[in-house]
Amino acid sequence: xxxxxxxxxxxxxxxxxxxxxxxxxxxxxxxxxxxxxxxxxxxxxxxxxxxxxxxxxxxxxxxxxxxxxxxxxxxxxxxxxxxxxxxxxxxxxxxxxxxxxxxxxxxxxxxxxxxxxxxxxxxxxxxxxxxxxxxxxxxxxxxxxxxxxxxxxxxxxxxxxxxxxxxxxxxxxxxxxxxxxxxxxxxxxxxxxxxxxxxxxxxxxxxxxxxxxxxxxxxxxxxxxxxxxxxxxxxxxxxxxxxxxxxxxxxxxxxxxxxxxxxxxxxxxxxxxxxxxxxxxxxxxxxxxxxxxxxxxxxxxxxxxxxxxxxxxxxxxxxxxxxxxxxxxxxxxxxxxxxxxxxxxxxxxxxxxxxxxxxxxxxxxxxxxxxxxxxxxxxxxxxxxxxxxxxxxxxxxxxxxxxxxxxxxxxxxxxxxxxxxxxxxxxxxxxxxxxxxxxxxxxxxxxxxxxxxxxxxxxxxxxxxxxxxxxxxxxxxxxxxxxxxxxxxxxxxxxxxxxxxxxxxxxxxxxxxxxxxxxxxxxxxxxxxxxxxxxxx
Amino acid sequence: xxxxxxxxxxxxxxxxxxxxxxxxxxxxxxxxxxxxxxxxxxxxxxxxxxxxxxxxxxxxxxxxxxxxxxxxxxxxxxxxxxxxxxxxxxxxxxxxxxxxxxxxxxxxxxxxxxxxxxxxxxxxxxxxxxxxxxxxxxxxxxxxxxxxxxxxxxxxxxxxxxxxxxxxxxxxxxxxxxxxxxxxxxxxxxxxxxxxxxxxxxxxxxxxxxxxxxxxxxxxxxxxxxxxxxxxxxxxxxxxxxxxxxxxxxxxxxxxxxxxxxxxxxxxxxxxxxxxxxxxxxxxxxxxxxxxxxxxxxxxxxxxxxxxxxxxxxxxxxxxxxxxx
Lengths: 537, 325
What we know:
The complex is a heterodimer.
Chain A: H1 3-19, E1 25-30, H2 45-54, E2 59-61, E3 67-69, E4 72-79, E5 82-87, H3 101-112, H4 122-126, E6 129-134, E7 139-144, H5 151-154, H6 188-192, E8 203-209, E9 213-218, E10 231-236, H7 240-248, E11 254-256, H8 263-268, E12 272-287, E13 297-298, H9 309-318, H10 321-328, E14 333-335, H11 358-367, E15 375-381, H12 388-401, E16 405-411, H13 413-421, E17 427-433, H14 440-447, H15 467-477, H16 482-499, E18 502-515, E19 518-520, E20 533-535
Parallel strand pairs in A: 1-10, 1-11, 15-16
Antiparallel strand pairs in A: 2-3, 4-5, 5-7, 6-7, 8-9, 9-10, 11-18, 12-17, 12-18, 13-15, 14-18, 19-20
Chain B: H1 2-30, H2 34-37, H3 44-53, H4 60-72, H5 86-121, H6 126-140, H7 143-157, E1 170-172, E2 175-177, H8 182-215, H9 218-226, H10 230-260, H11 262-267, H12 273-282, H13 286-314
Antiparallel strand pairs in B: 1-2
Helix pairs in contact in B: 1-13, 5-6, 5-8, 5-10, 5-13, 6-8, 7-8, 8-10, 9-10, 10-13, 12-13
């Protein structure tokens, strides 16, 4: 070691001894930076993950996205349109103030008065409430306009704020009169500076400097398990190469999303480990079935072959999902036979395997009248999903083998998503992470008929419409009984897999790499949490 | 001098206006940022509310006029993605970029000019030829590869320097600077070298050719004939006269590095403006992109002004404003 480094190391050791024997700092490198500390600003994974350290929700999700109690100890449906939550006692905010049902009501009110928020799902959750009342100091009763079985699920992403961050009188759920709030509603920047970032979570915000890093310090009065780290520093390093070298150089203790091809390197370097966790993000292709004349398909008979379910099944059979997972994703993915990983709520227990059978695919195509194939453009992003460009090329090659003349049009996401929304594609790639951890999420936005006033089918760019599926789905999302709802969701999924308006390819896996001496409990929702980092036994 | 300044000011305002029009309409033409921001889980009314709040439901020329009106009052708009004033976002990252570029430019001059002098004076010897050949490497090696190699060598294998990021900062008049701490220097060394290498090569070659040309000039031959010591000839006569092209290039490079040192900032995760620009372009965050390009234009304008003034200082033949006839 050079003399300077030796001196610096000695100084650091001295300071560590003097400053307190058990300072346990943790430094994590992030792949994308949270854009705000405000938990209700933007529904995005990095933002949600950061908010989870500082603010807590009534209901939380564990690593496999099962619902677990957080600020609510228990909850149950009193009847079809009433939910009752029993709040935890003895919880304090980081500034010492007690957690009360009024804080929850204040949070609900704030969410619908958050003008700066980028439209997400927060306000739409609260808009489904008919009334909220604190039955006693510990119980909260929420009345909903229509049966709302997913309410506990939707509350897992709504961080609870302290009502004292603005002036108010008595707080009640009276949206007309601003719920009794007399001061100004908090703004995005107030949270960024830390002034109003007061929550019940295991960590407190010390500083948030965009581009440089986020510093958290341990909340010593946290009600739950004592957080292991005294300080946590998140540093955004968006490029995978420097992120990895930072880990190898000892600058970071843990990094998220190293490139899959670098896993070999991590395996072969002593002193480092990694964990691979299947996530709920499914990569799929959506067909344009709604139009007789689709922009990027050309068939000799002038019709749109994608409207024929035999053609869609043939295309699904032509793709070797296992090979894509092995060769392109380096094993860091799981072939998908439905739209949510097996085992999650509402999925089919034994879904029929989407087999790779090019011969059968050719036969099906001929049966449908396209023995000579047709022309098709495979549209995809090249910078949004893991290896998206290469996946598109592989798919195009598989299609060519069964006689479809496929070409690839991969573009940057800022051009792709607006174009897709304007329905300029016929066979378009997509990725979707079901944040609710259950099966209705994908169906609601991508498969049900396009009905934006109802909030259904808003991403159904292919305009697939199956009234039977719509009916089963509508029943499912208004059935509060878990067992019945699961059956209905499975029914809807079966219908969707028979018709294949979209074909799933695989579920992405999330990767975390860390230095020796640590373990990380990988999460299906891809959040990187300091609370999931533990010292190795 | 006053006339010169006023004319420059007027020209700059024109340029700023033109730039704002071009960038505004260019980013608009790429696509609709709403698709990249709003989650499909949002209700129609929430989506419409966001569109209306961001002004995206207006025809583009009206959006531009609204932007211009607010800009004249000093408000360049709020970032679509971050929700905070765009200019604030950029200015927050300006000190980091500024000090990186300052160190890089200083390195370029401190290393490039002497090396160039040596290369020029000894151009017929192995030393001079060697330096010139080496300089080719400087501007032909790709920037990101250079950066990754530096990180591999100094951070991973030798462990002397940190791999990325900015070091500890000290607040000077409210501006956080990292070059005042030892930790800051250990972080800035590699990215500054990475940025500087191409410029060192450029400055070196310019100086060398300038020296070669100056040596054939009459006044140098005269000084040599007079018996002036070689060192004094180089310092007093040659150096001053070759600096004009060097100053031009350094000025241009300074402006372009401030605005577009994106690759180095990405490789070293340096929290500067370049990275913000690239991310904003990807996310179609129009207010930030427009504010950024206008700021970059403004910087170029100021730098050009300073360069022109330096010309006049360095070369008495140059007049800032030609005399009226």
